[in-house]
Amino acid sequence: MKIIITILLLLLFQNNYEYKNGIPTKDGIANYVNENKDDIVQEFELFVGQKFFDYNIVVDDLKDYQDYDSLEAGRYYQDFDIIISNELKYLDYELSFMPKYKQKKYSNNNKFVKAVVIHELSHLYFNEIKLEMQEKRMHVHRDYHSSSSVLKPKTISNADFIEEGICEYIVCRMKQSICDNNYKPKSVEEITSIDNQYNIKYVYGRTYLTEFLNKYGIKQGLLILLSNEPPNNTEILYPELYFGRIK
């Protein structure tokens, strides 16, 4: 009788999404996103304390899109469209679906379908705060009107570093990624290396902003960050220089 009850409990708590070779399938990813996207949006809105103006989340293969980057698992367009890739690159649908012993194998990993949805929603939230500031005639630094996917050389400001760092901070705070790695670059060359962009923007960007956002909160912190010039590469290497000048 105890064995039967145990099996029934395991079946009850097992997710119904499709796997192949231990990872989410294309159809499984589409089913997960379509079934859960509105609930994830509500969870996000509750976390940040603000509702979206609008959103549209779809699933597609990002390899078919222009300027494809093998590191990306989602894409946000400023017309409120979010694309979640159905490539076979996720560890699981949600971090909570992965057994604890498997989680311990990683010090940093955001390759979960739900984590990517939240990351892209964070881009949407970032953009909506910018629009809100502009409507209220609040100053938004010109570098945040457009951003680049690769950090620029020398001392040119890096808005994208801040935006991606905020997105990963939110994913981590919502407990949807493994974020135990507090990587820090040791040189400007390490910051500008194209081969190191993932570590810089997604891992270090999060840790770079954590203390600041913990102090001011996400929305107030965003208002401050957006109104100031983003950090140059020297300020990225030495955070105290950047946080010492913004206000």
> How many individual domains?
1
3D shape: globular
The span between the termini is 65 Å
Q: How is the main sheet built?
A: 3 strands, mixed
Put the structure in a nutshell.
The chain is mostly helical.
What does this structure look like?
With 247 residues, this protein is mainly alpha-helical. It has one domain. Helix content is 49%, strand content 9%. The chain contains 10 helices and 7 strands. The chain has helices spanning 2-13, 26-48, 100-103, 113-135, 159-173, 188-192, 197-216, 218-227, 233-237, 239-243, and strands spanning 19-20, 23-24, 56-60, 74-77, 81-85, 108-109, 178-179. The strands form 3 sheets. A 3-stranded mixed sheet has the order 3-5-4, covered by helices on one side. Strand 4 (74-77) and strand 5 (81-85) form a beta hairpin. Helix 7 packs across helix 8. The longest helix is centred in the first third of the chain and has 23 residues, at 26-48.
Secondary structure blueprint with pairings:
Layout: H1 2-13, E1 19-20, E2 23-24, H2 26-48, E3 56-60, E4 74-77, E5 81-85, H3 100-103, E6 108-109, H4 113-135, H5 159-173, E7 178-179, H6 188-192, H7 197-216, H8 218-227, H9 233-237, H10 239-243
Parallel strand pairs: 3-5
Antiparallel strand pairs: 1-2, 4-5, 6-7
Helix pairs in contact: 2-4, 4-5, 4-8, 5-7, 7-8
